[in-house]
Structure formats: structure tokens, C-alpha cells
Specification:
The protein is mostly beta strands and about 450 residues long. It has one domain: Outer membrane protein transport protein (OMPP1/FadL/TodX) (Porin). It has a 14-stranded antiparallel β-barrel. A hairpin with a 4-residue loop joins strand 3 and strand 4. The longest helix is centred in the N-terminal third of the chain and has 17 residues.
Amino acid sequence: MIIMQQLSSRATRDPAPSLRRKHRNSLLRLAAGLATLLAATASQAGGYFILGYGPYANQSAGTSTAIGMDGFAGASNPAKLTEADDRLDLGLIVFAPYRRIERTDAQVPAYNFASTSENDWFFLPEVGYVQHLNERWSVGLSIYGNGGLNTEYRDTTGIPGTNNNPGRCGNQPGNFFFGCGKLGFDLSQLIVAPTLAWKINEKHSIGGAPLLAYQRLKMYGLQAFESLSQTPNAVSNNGNDDTYGAGLRVGWFGNITPWLDMGLSYATRVYMDEFDKYRGLLADEGDFDIPENYSLGLAIKPSARWTIGLDIQRIRFGEIRALSNGVLNSIEDPAGKPLGSKNGSGFNWRSTTRFKTAVAYEHTPALTLRAGFSYGERAQRDDSADSVSFNLLAPNPIYQVSAGFGWRIGEHHEFNASYSRYLKGTYSGPSASAALGIGGTERITPNVDQFMFAYSRRF
């Protein structure tokens, strides 16, 4: 049952049956439009790609194409493997996110409310390894992830009967997207990258790393979307779904002058199995590949103690239908573009460019200080109703800053730590529920504190 008249917190009154019938189909269309809420598990300007991989990149706001010679070359630029010491890196990334969604100025006051995600702490381990076989060849292994965050919004209207799927939800109050119970998702990605690099000569190296990927997805509280899905039983509350896939990363590293290094890195699209349990939710029948990306990096060394890093990275989110299809696709054409179909609703994301810079200062042979700054375009194409509602569960802060240090203890041991801040900002725009006569403004206010701790053993 859908309540479409003004309601107070002290008294409620069911709307007339004719009014409920009038708006029922519109609300279902809205729900379908919101159905492809994919998980941006580590909220940042890079969509769901986390800030960086490995101890040095985390201290440097992700700047890593031509700097940061640790065991994580397979995650950034495989050719850098020839420049790192033989070593083992064991790291732990700790996320402390804050995400609050809110709807205001709706014509139906029952749907004006806010909710803060309940998940406060997440832990993401990572491993890097380097071994030089001889003067020319090096091998390594990087194990890292995109994820470690999920969202879980528990607040509801508090008014019985305000969900849009009474067959599944009974008379429960509606959540922020008109389903029932907790609303949220959990997307995690794990990548294993065995790496091989060849030092062509004293100036240049090339390398490659197959990307062996695992994904896990769970989505819940989206029952209102089922009516316009081509597979209604594969939309919401189906537990964890696992997929596997593979891609390839290649790179080049060059020592151009004594004061300038350069790096290039390219990662193919990682082709994944479909999410079968959510094929009625995600566009293209559950297809959710990891997008192609590439980067150019510079390392400028004005003196023996100082290094300045610069990166430009392009991530092609726009090539993945579940991410790039417009939010309104299934709202405007529910028969021709049902939820879960090739042209069904998506996130309305575009391909994005990120700019990263970092500085490293060797204070003593034992202590190195690092700091970085990252700016990235929002993945959302605009702030219209074709973007905002979907991205309430996938906030993308634009700016990130990082600072940290590496402390060498003797010849073989090193401890690294860093702090990063995804700067707070509010993303807002018109609600897609305007089609219902609900309307209003929807906004998300995210920020994330990130801590990294790592131990390295040099051989």
C-alpha cells in the first residue's frame, strides 16, 4: 500500500483507494529506476576503486605509476618490479566511513527523512612480494582488493503500509527506496596479480600481470523494484553471490634522466561471470565487469632526498552497462527496457579522469615522510534526476589527502603507516520520485577516514 497524502508523525490516515491506484504504477517505475544500485564499496572520486594499493601508494594518495617501489607493482605498474628490493609487504587498510542520505521538501511528508549507514569500520588486508631472479628478470605477487565498505540504512518512514511490495513486505513501513527492512549493499573485489618484469637495459623495463579476480555482491531492501524486473526473483535479498574473472595489466618504466622517471600502465577490462542472483537487478543480466583503466606517471627528483610524483589515470566506467546506463531508462520505458535487461536502468556513470600528486622526503636513511593529494571527476554524468537517486548509495567524494611515513629498522625491517581523508562533501539533486508526485531533493553527505599499517621484510 502506498500513502500519497500528507501525514504527520502523530497521526496517519490511509489515502483513498483511487489515489493509491493512481500513483501505484508511477512508484513502481521509480523503484525500477532505482533498482540498479550497485556497490561503490570504497567511496571515492574513482568510483569504487580504492585510493591506492600498497604502503607507499596509500601514503601518497594513490600516486604510484612511476613512484613507490614496493611489492605492489602488479596493482599499479608491473614494470616497476625491477626497481624494488626483494621484499615481502603485509598491509592492513582500515576504513571508517560516514554516509548519510536524506530526502527533503517532498510533497508527501512521510517520505521526508534521513538515514545514516550503520557500518562504521572495515578491514582490508593486502600482500605484495618481489623476488629478483637475476639482473634482468623479476617476479612478484600482488593481492589486493576494491571494497571493504558497504552501506546499511536501517531507518524507515515509521508508518505502516508505506512500502511498495506488500506481497513481500506485508504492512511494514517503507525504507528510503520504498522496500522494507534494512536497505543496502555489499560489493567486494579481490584481485590476485602474479607479476613478471624484464629490465630491457639500464634505462627501461617492461612488465605484465594477469589479473585473477573474485567478486562478491549482496543487496537487500530493494523489494519495490521487483515488479518491473524481467527476472523478479533475482532482484533483492538473495544473499551473497560470487563471480570470477580475469584480465591483464601491462606497464613500462623508464629512467629518462637522472632527475626524471616515467611510467605507463594499462589494464584491460576484467571479464567477470554474471551475478546470477541479481541478474534481475543489474543491467545486462547481472554483468558487472571491472572496467579498463590506464595511467601515466612522472617522478621528479629535484635533489637526492626529495621526490615529487604526478599521475593521470583514466577509468572507463562508461563501458560497463550496469554503471553507465541512465537511471531513467526503465522509468521511461519499463516494457522495452525492463530492469536487468541490456538497456535497463544503471548508475548513469561516465568514464572519469583522476589527477594525483605526492611528495616523498627522506629525512634520514631510516625515516621517509610522504604526503599526497588526489582529485577526480565525479563518476555521475550530472546532478539531474537521471543520476542522483541511484548514487545515494554510491557516494563519490572528489578530493582525498594522505600523509604517512616509512621507518626502517635495521637492514631488513620496515614499518609503514598512513592516514587518508576522503574530504566531506554533499551531493544533491532532484529526486526521481517527482514522477510520483513525491519529488523533493535527495542528498548524500559522505566522508571517509582511512588508516594503513604495513610491515615489510627485505631479503
